[in-house]
Design a protein that fits this description.
The protein is mainly α and 295 residues long. It is 66% helix and 0% strand. It is built from 15 helices and no strands. Helix 3 packs across helix 15, helix 6 packs across helix 9 and helix 8 runs antiparallel to helix 15.
């Protein structure tokens, strides 16, 4: 990684389309996400410390841990960044000048086309597996530890829970409808290894996906997504989420056209980078917690 962890966290935006889109999901997980920005601010928030000398020690230790390549923190950050970049690659160049602006959804339509349902399903499944692998990297456990990840989902909070909420809502409910988990699983079960190998998002992160071959990786992705489907379905049903409720809350933060919803999934892919944003925040929190415990 070319940037240090404190540079990444210090330069996270406090506004713009990614932040506004995530704020629209507060109704899903009320009060869980406050968009912590700035590495020093994160240390103070996580530890409650105000002593400048101790804060500096914690920061130095956290940076050391992140820079230690025997740990998995840099790989996790790479996964969060890469899966977001690959997801938004189509159309990004045309929209680069507008990405940071709080602009009307309608102005994007000339540069977007709806994503095929199969492609959207594969993207959803791969993002879920990236979360699993990043979780394993952060926690120093084998990258194929599906059971550990599924068990941990019930304890997700803060930035990590917001990332999963956004995955369910923005990559699941909005583009694929209420049966998004079933659609994702059926898509995987109908794929061949070569189909997976041709997917650009898979290509971007394939070197860290367990399995040993495209066929083995397809099996791992399918098993992982099937294992997480119960959690995702419960997350939706427990909160009474529907595509309409998510869109209505999104519309209160971002100007969108409700008669152009077939474009909304593509719009969110191109204009937001919620995996990178909340992933950096998750890493900053985990590094701070570990550094604080070690000092």
């Amino acid at each position: 990684m070319s940037k240090s962890i404190f540079e990444i966290v210090d330069h996270l935006p406090t506004g713009g389309l990614t932040v506004m889109s995530l704020k629209s999901l507060d109704f899903v997980i009320p009060g869980q996400w406050t968009n912590p920005v700035g590495f020093e601010n994160t240390i103070k928030l996580v530890t409650g410390e105000t002593d400048d000398s101790l804060i500096q020690q914690i920061g130095d230790r956290a940076v050391h841990l992140y820079n230690d390549k025997s740990q998995g923190y840099q790989k996790a950050m790479w996964l969060y960044e890469t899966v977001d970049s690959a997801s938004s690659a189509l159309g990004t160049a045309a929209l680069a000048g507008k990405m940071a602006q709080d602009v009307s959804f309608l102005s994007f339509l000339g540069n977007l086309t709806p994503k095929p349902e199969t492609s959207q399903s594969i993207d959803l499944c791969i993002k879920l597996v990236v979360e699993l692998v990043a979780f394993c990297q952060i926690n120093g456990i084998p990258g194929d530890s599906i059971g550990d990840f599924i068990g941990a989902l019930g304890d997700y909070s803060g930035e990590s829970l917001m990332r999963m909420a956004a995955l369910v809502c923005f990559d699941g409910l909005i583009p694929l409808g209420p049966d998004f988990a079933l659609k994702g699983l059926n898509t995987l079960k109908g794929m061949t290894a070569s189909d997976l190998g041709g997917n650009p998002i898979f290509k971007s992160v394939s070197n860290l996906i367990p399995g040993g071959s495209e066929g083995g990786q397809l099996s791992f992705i399918t098993q992982s997504f099937e294992s997480a489907s119960g959690w995702m379905n419960s997350f939706v049903s427990d909160r009474g989420l529907t595509p309409e409720s998510v869109v209505n809350h999104l519309a209160s933060f971002v100007e969108i056209s409700k008669d152009k919803l077939e474009y909304l999934g593509a719009f969110l892919d191109v204009s937001t980078n919620y995996y990178y944003h909340t992933g950096a925040q998750t890493l900053a929190r985990r590094l701070t917690e570990r550094a604080f415990a070690e000092i």
